[in-house]
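Protocol step 4 of 6: structure prediction from sequence.
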Amino acid sequence: MGRRGRADHHGRRARRAERDLRRHRQAPPQRPARRPGPAPGVTPRAATFLPPPFTGEGRGGGPRAFAALLLMSVLNGTASAQVAPFVVTEDAILAPLEGRIGDAARGAAVVRNRETANCLICHSIPDPRERFMGDIGPPLAGVGSRLTAGQIRLRLVDATLLNPDAVMPPYHRVAGLVRVDERYRGQPVLTAQEIEDVVAFLATLKDEGE
């Protein structure tokens, strides 16, 4: 190979090396891995809101602020039973669902559970051991004096039966809901037994002196 041929050969190698180096230097940085988001079409399990009779309003921000919090509450777990039949009398469901007897201790556990009903994201209960309780909804202290067991039951089952614009989510309804993950379709958020347990617990929260 002559001098010119060797020069051309080395020149081509140098140009290839330069192009490779330029591509390496100018290569776009790798994008950080995207954090997985919630599955599309999932309805989060919402926090409980016990409104005053015939209203869906809470304190501190109104329904829009409360709806935003509902979207932030993550759906965890499932309720295995179907919706129990019930009869509405004025502003109450007088008969316990499926004739079940509620247990106040179990109901207290449901109310305190931050991953299911998540009541304490919006409410406070008279227990100094609980921290980070909400104040968007009314305090649950004394709710057993303000409302009867039947009135509490109706508000838990479906507050829109009292007020179509109520912001409280239905805890024992499956019809007419949208964007429900297919894994949970046809299942209420709380079972009939859980509803009765929560009713039993809230009914014990009386005003002082009662």
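Step 5 (inspection) to follow. Confidence is low (pLDDT under 50) at residues 3-7, 24-61, 63-81.
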